[in-house]
Amino acid sequence: MLGGTVPEVVGAGAATAAAAATPSSASDNASGEAAAKERANVDPSKPTTNIQVRLNDGSRLVVRLNHSHTVGDLREFVSLARPHLAASPFNLLTTFPSKVGEAKRQKII
Asked: Which fold does the domain 24-109 belong to in CATH?
């Protein structure tokens, strides 16, 4: 399938791989986002920022984090909010000039 998050799998484990690559329903997304927000543990008394994450399926997430949070925290938020994406590798890219956020300990601000 062109543009899929994982290649088509043929064999005994095909149903499991297809289930992992299937996008979640709206209620799954809402519960995943709620769990991710709780896990992020944002302190409202410290400086915060909103980061808009565009996903490969065209949807977006708005992530609210403290300035002290890291790229690793952002990756964890995306993986918790959209569990079907956690099974496949993904990159976090900035807008122009485009950079890949690879250093998990790098602060987001």
From this structure: Ubiquitin-like (UB roll) (3.10.20)
Q: What is the pTM of this model?
A: 0.65
pLDDT (tens digit per residue) in 32-72: 888 888 888 888 899 998 888 888 788 888 889 899 888 88
Q: Are 42 and 48 in contact (CB under 8 A)?
A: yes
**Is residue 61 within 8 Å of 52, Cβ to Cβ?**
yes
The CA R_g of the chain, rounded to the nearest whole Å, is: 15
List phi, psi (to 5°) of 15. Answer: -65, -40
For residues 85 and 21, the answer to whether their CB atoms sit within 8 Å is no
Ordered by start, the domain boundaries in the chain are 24-109
- Token pair for residue 72? 């690793």
